[in-house]
Amino acid sequence: MENKKSNKRTNTVKNKGNVKNNKNKNSNNVKNTKNTKNTKTKQKKKMSARKKIVLILLLIILIAGGVFAYKTYKNGGGLSGMLATAVGHDENTKKNLGEFKCLVLGISTDEEGALLTDTIMVASYNPNTQKATLLSIPRDTYTGNTPSRATAYEKINSVYSRHEDPQDVLDEVNEITGLNLEYYVIVKTEGFIKLVDAIGGVTFNVPIDMDYDDTSQDLHIHLKAGEQLLDGDKAEQLVRFRHNNDGSSYPEEYGDNDTGRMRTQREFIMAVIQQTAKVENIFKLGQILEVAQENVITNIDFNVAKDYIPYAVEFSTENLLTATLPGENTNKNAAGTWIFVHDEDETAALIQELFYDRDLEQPTEEGTENTTGNETNSTSNATGNQTSSSRVSKADIKLEVINGSGNSNKLQEVVNELEGAGYEVYRTGTTNSTSKTTIINKKDAADTILENIKTTLGVGTISNSQSSSSKADVTIVIGRDYE
Q1: 371 lies in which domain range?
Q2: Which is the most buried residue in 175, 226, 336, 401, by most CB within 10 A?
Q3: What's the Rg (C-alpha) of the chain?
Q4: Residue 342, CA atoms < 13 Å, CB-side half-sphere
Q5: Do 292 and 239 belong to one domain?
């Protein structure tokens, strides 16, 4: 009996313990359920907060994107508008930008270690008209005061090597041209090579076979005529070529020796601009800037450059006008040194035309010119013919040929035809594509001359647009109708 009672008490205690444990378990389960609910509630709140943050960020992005898109539209749209907006421009920034001008020097090292400027150019760019100019300065240009006692030391290509100070060259060019240039860009040969390689090479039509060797400078030029893709090494050969090992050079109609080289340099720079401006090269900007940082010397402030770059990306080489400083080569001095003596009057007229009057003349779609400024109609008699003061000799007429055909090969074809007919083509350039060829009488060329030019070309509309500041007697704008 006692054992039974004892067992009952034991079981009762166990049961009470089990009940208590069950209560504790139930209590824990309730707590766990509450914790789970709290955790889920907190997670929902966090998710809700995250969604709000994401929505706010999206809203900010949309607003910012809308503002950016609107500003891009106000800045002209396209890549140019995007870049202008990105650097903080508004629709008035471009309007307040003037023409940018600078001196461009290409430097190589000769056999004695002297730094010579093989390329000397004045470059200009107007973001509002999208017009640009390249004026070549012959490297033998005399900078002294007495040509009869000239020495090689006084040629402009040796100025930089004296003190390695670009300001010295800048001062000489300003003295010669009358321009007040403030900026300079010096490109070392190594940098030029790397730049061409960075943009994937440049397709260019090499004008003649080039075969030249100079072991003292480790310069070896071996190029075949014709269109081809030039890498950096071949590009250097192209722009440094003057003559072959046998003494032959560019044909006279192209421009012999230095004249031919300057023309090739200008045309190659045009090709480099076209290649660099391609959209795919925008993504190579970092590499291009790295090349520039290592191989370019300039005093152009970044804030100045960033104002022009957004608009320069839309520049077309059709709006690039090129020319060479007027003058003559001579060795009539005590040392028999060949120098180039620029013509002061012709230089002044050319500078006026290139850098000051150019924006006054805008070719229309038909290739004629709408003019403003110091221009008047030609003098005519009752029958519509020009007065007897008109010149009739081909040798007296200076022609300017502007290519608006859209085909770069047409320019040389026209020049060859005109020079073959006995005319002097003193300057060439390019302009926007136009449908019809126009022969513009800018001074006092006779009707017989104008008609002869038209017959020579087989096409052309004759117009009169007198300009006292123009060095050209007749400007010919080649249209797409020229065959």
Answers
A1: 364-478
A2: 401
A3: 37
A4: 29
A5: yes
Structure tokens at 209: 């076979």
Q: Are 140 and 152 in contact (CB under 8 A)?
A: no
For the stretch 154-176, pLDDT in tens is 899 888 888 788 899 999 999 99
Averaged pLDDT, 87-100: 67
* Inter-residue contact 368 to 440 (CB < 8 Å): yes
Q: What pLDDT, on a 0 to 100 scale, did the predictor assign at position 220?
A: 92
Please say whether the beta carbons of 130 and 139 come within 8 A. Answer: no
Regarding whether 409 and 273 lie in a shared domain, the answer is: no
* Domain end (from 312, 340, 356): 356
d(CA 165, CA 251): 36
Kindly state whether residue 90 falls inside one of the protein's structural domains. Answer: no
Query: Token match 């950016």: residue?
Result: 68
Q: Please check whether residue 257 lies inside any domain of the structure.
A: yes
Give the model confidence (pLDDT) of 336-380 as tens digits: 888 999 988 888 888 887 887 665 444 433 333 333 333 333 333
| DSSP structural state of residue 15 | H
Beta strands 398-403 and 474-478 are parallel
226 in the same domain as 325: yes
Query: Where among 356, 380, 409 does a domain terminate?
Result: 356
The rounded distance, in Å, linking the Cα atoms of 272 and 104 is 15
> In this structure, is the dihedral angle defined by the CA atoms of residues 250, 254, 256 and 258, taken in order, positive or negative?
negative
Confidence tier at 39 by pLDDT (50, 70, 90): low
How far is it, in rounded angstroms, from Cα 428 to Cα 436?
Answer: 18
Binning pLDDT at 50, 70 and 90, where does residue 32 land?
Answer: low
